C-alpha cells in the first residue's frame, strides 16, 4: 500500500519588519541637554568639594554642635502658642490671598474659559513670572514698601504662590466636563453663570486640595522669611541663632518640624478625601446604622420622596459641606485678626509706591558684578549638585513607595511615611545645621537641598509609577516575564517622560531655594542679596533679581521644551 504525501508548500517569503524610526532632532537635542546637566551636576559636586572625606572631617563639629543644643530650651507655653498662632495666621492669609488671585487668573489662562488668546497668553506670563521670582525677593521689596510685620510676608508668600496655584487651577479647569457649561449656555445663561454653575462646582475639590497643599509649602517657607523680618516662629528662630542660642533655636526648630509634619498629614488626609470624590460603597457601621435610623438622611443615599422639589435637600453631605464653608470663613477671619494686619499701613505703603519703585531703579552693580556672576554660578552649582544627590536617593525610595511596584504593604507604607517626614523638614533648618557642622559655603546648601529633594522627588516618582497603565504590565507578565523585566520594560518606560519633567522641575525649585538659603551662609548669591538690602543698595538688589530671574526662566524654558519633546 502506498501513501501519498501532500506537496510541500513553498516557504513563504520573509516578512520585512518596519525599521525603527530615526529619532527626531529635538529628541537628540533633549538627550544632549540632559547628559550635559548630568555632567554639570557631577562637576558641581567635585568643584564644591562635596565628598565623604569632607563629611567625615565634620564629625567633630557635629558633636560640638550637638553638645551646644542640648538640653533644648523651649519658650514659655503661652509665648510658644502665640508664635505658632501668628505663623499659622500669616500662612493662612497668604494662602487665601493666593487662591483669591489665582482663580480669576486661571479662568483667563484656561483654554476653555479664556475670552481670547491675548488674555490667555498674558495670564500664562503672570503665572510663570510669579513662580520665577523667589518669595525672598518679594519679601525684601514689600518690607521696603510696608515695613516690618505681617503684611510684607503675606504679600510675598501670596503673590509667589500664584505661580503654582494658578497653574494647577488652570490645568484643572481645562479638564472639566464641558456638558454642564454648554447646557447652561444653551439655556440662555451668561458667561458668569456658566463659570459659577458649570465650571467652579466641578473643580471645587481640586481647588481646595491645591490650597491645602500650598498651605503646607507656605508654612515651611515662612520660616525662611523670618530671617528678613516676617513675624512669627521663623523670626524667633532667626533671633535665637543670630545670638548663637542654639538651645532655643533648635527647640523652636523642633516645634516647626512637628508642626509641619502634623499639617502635612492633616492636609494630606483632607486632600485624599476631597479628591476621592464619590461615596464609598463600604460604609462604616456607624454610618449604616445612622442611615437606617434616618432613612438614608445621613449619607443622602435615598432620593427625596417628592421629585418636584427644586432646591437640594439637607442631607448629611450638604450639612457637612455647609459646616465646612462656615468653619473656613471663621478661620479666615481669625487669621486676619491673628496676623495683626494693619490696613492703614497697607494704604500708606501703596501711597508711597512710586517713591519705593524709584529706589530700585535703575539697576546697578555696585562695582561687584564679577562677584555677583561668580556667586550666581555657585547658586546654580548648589542646585545641580542637590538635584543629582537627591535623585540618587529619591528614586529607590519612590520605587519602594509605589503600590503597584512594591506589593508588600508594610514596605510601601514605610517608604511613604519616610517621604512625609522628609517633606515636613524645612530646608532652612537643615541648612543651618549643616552650616554649623561643615562651615559656611555651598556644601551646606547643597546637602540641605539634597535632603529636601528626596521628599518631593520621592513623592513624584512614586506617583508617576502608580499612574502607569497596569494593562501593559499585565500583558508583559503574561508572556512569562519576571518582575524586574516587567518593571524595566513596562513601568519605567511609561513613567520616563514624567521622570524627566519632575527632575527639571526639582532643578527649578532648587535654584530658587539656593537663593533663599544664601541668607544663612549656605553659599550662593542670596547672601549678597540680603547684604544689599540691609545697606539700602536697592539698585544692586534689582540687578540680582534680574539675573536670578533670567536663570530661572531659562531653566523653565528648557523644562517646557523637554516635556513637549519627550511626551
UniProtKB/TrEMBL annotation:
Keywords, alphabetical: Cell membrane, Membrane, Transmembrane, Transmembrane helix, Transport
GO MF, any single term: ABC-type phosphonate transporter activity
Gene Ontology terms: cellular component: plasma membrane
Protein's cellular compartments: Cell membrane
Segments crossing the lipid bilayer: 25-46, 88-110, 136-159, 217-238, 250-274, 319-337, 378-402, 414-437, 443-462, 509-529, 535-562
UniProt membrane topology term: Multi-pass membrane protein
Pfam families per UniProt: BPD_transp_1 (PF00528)
Chief localization: membrane
Residues of the ABC transmembrane type-1 domain: 84-267, 376-559
Organism domain of life: Bacteria
Assigned protein family: Belongs to the binding-protein-dependent transport system permease family.
PANTHER family named in the record: ABC TRANSPORT SYSTEM PERMEASE PROTEIN P69 (PTHR30043:SF1), PHOSPHONATES TRANSPORT SYSTEM PERMEASE PROTEIN (PTHR30043)
Name of the protein described by the UniProt record: Phosphonate ABC transporter, permease protein PhnE
Native source organism of the sequence: Epidermidibacterium keratini
Lineage, highest ranks first: Bacteria, Bacillati, Actinomycetota, Actinomycetes, Sporichthyales
Amino acid at each position: 500500500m502506498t501513501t501519498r504525501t501532500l506537496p510541500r508548500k513553498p516557504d513563504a517569503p520573509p516578512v520585512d519588519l518596519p525599521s525603527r524610526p530615526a529619532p527626531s532632532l529635538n529628541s537628540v537635542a533633549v538627550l544632549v541637554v540632559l547628559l550635559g546637566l548630568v555632567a554639570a551636576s557631577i562637576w558641581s559636586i567635585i568643584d564644591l568639594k562635596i565628598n565623604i572625606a569632607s563629611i567625615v572631617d565634620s564629625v567633630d563639629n557635629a558633636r560640638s554642635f550637638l553638645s551646644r543644643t542640648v538640653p533644648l530650651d523651649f519658650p514659655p507655653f503661652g509665648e510658644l502658642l502665640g508664635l505658632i498662632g501668628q505663623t499659622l495666621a500669616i500662612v493662612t492669609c497668604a494662602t487665601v490671598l493666593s487662591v483669591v488671585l489665582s482663580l480669576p487668573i486661571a479662568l483667563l489662562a484656561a483654554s476653555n474659559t479664556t475670552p481670547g488668546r491675548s488674555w490667555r497668553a498674558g495670564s500664562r506670563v503672570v503665572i510663570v513670572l510669579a513662580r520665577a521670582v523667589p518669595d525672598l525677593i518679594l519679601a525684601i521689596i514689600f518690607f521696603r514698601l510696608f515695613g516690618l510685620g505681617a503684611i510684607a510676608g503675606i504679600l510675598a508668600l501670596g503673590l509667589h504662590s500664584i505661580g503654582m496655584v494658578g497653574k494647577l487651577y488652570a490645568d484643572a479647569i481645562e479638564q472639566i466636563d464641558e456638558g454642564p457649561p454648554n447646557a447652561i449656555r444653551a439655556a440662555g445663561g451668561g458667561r458668569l453663570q456658566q463659570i459659577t454653575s458649570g465650571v467652579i462646582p466641578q473643580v471645587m475639590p481640586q481647588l481646595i486640595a491645591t490650597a491645602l497643599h500650598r498651605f503646607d509649602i507656605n508654612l515651611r517657607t515662612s520660616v525662611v522669611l523670618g530671617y528678613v523680618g516676617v513675624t512669627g516662629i521663623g523670626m524667633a528662630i532667626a533671633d535665637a541663632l543670630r545670638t548663637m542660642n542654639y538651645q532655643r533655636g533648635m527647640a523652636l526648630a523642633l516645634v516647626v518640624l512637628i508642626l509641619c509634619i502634623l499639617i502635612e498629614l492633616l492636609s494630606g488626609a483632607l486632600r485624599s478625601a476631597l479628591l476621592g470624590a464619590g461615596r464609598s460603597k463600604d460604609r462604616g457601621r456607624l454610618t449604616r446604622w445612622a442611615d437606617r435610623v434616618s432613612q438614608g438622611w445621613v449619607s443622602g443615599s435615598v432620593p427625596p420622596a417628592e421629585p418636584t422639589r427644586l432646591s437640594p435637600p439637607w442631607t448629611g453631605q450638604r450639612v457637612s459641606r455647609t459646616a465646612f464653608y462656615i468653619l473656613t470663613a471663621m478661620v479666615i477671619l481669625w487669621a486676619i485678626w491673628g496676623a495683626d494686619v494693619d490696613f492703614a499701613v497697607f494704604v500708606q505703603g501703596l501711597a508711597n509706591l512710586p517713591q519705593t519703585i524709584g529706589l530700585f531703579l535703575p539697576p546697578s552693580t555696585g562695582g561687584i558684578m564679577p562677584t555677583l556672576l561668580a556667586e550666581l554660578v555657585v547658586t546654580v552649582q548648589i542646585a545641580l549638585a542637590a538635584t543629582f544627590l537627591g535623585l540618587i536617593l529619591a528614586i529607590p525610595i519612590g520605587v519602594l513607595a509605589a503600590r503597584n511596584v512594591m506589593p508588600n504593604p508594610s514596605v510601601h507604607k514605610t517608604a511613604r511615611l519616610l517621604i512625609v517626614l522628609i517633606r515636613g523638614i524645612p530646608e532652612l533648618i537643615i541648612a543651618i545645621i549643616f552650616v554649623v557642622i561643615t562651615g559656611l559655603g555651598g556644601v551646606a546648601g547643597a546637602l540641605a537641598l539634597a535632603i529636601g529633594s528626596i521628599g518631593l522627588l520621592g513623592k513624584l516618582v512614586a506617583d508617576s509609577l502608580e499612574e502607569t497603565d497596569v494593562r501593559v504590565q499585565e500583558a508583559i507578565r503574561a508572556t512569562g516575564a519576571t518582575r524586574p523585566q516587567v518593571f524595566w520594560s513596562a513601568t519605567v518606560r511609561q513613567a520616563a517622560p514624567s521622570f524627566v519633567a519632575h527632575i527639571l522641575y526639582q532643578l527649578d525649585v532648587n535654584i530658587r531655594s539656593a537663593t533663599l538659603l544664601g541668607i544663612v551662609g549656605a553659599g550662593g548669591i542670596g547672601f549678597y542679596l540680603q547684604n544689599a538690602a540691609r545697606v539700602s543698595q536697592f539698585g544692586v538688589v534689582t540687578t540680582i533679581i534680574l539675573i536670578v530671574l533670567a536663570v530661572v526662566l531659562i531653566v523653565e524654558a528648557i523644562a517646557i521644551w523637554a516635556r513637549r519633546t519627550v511626551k
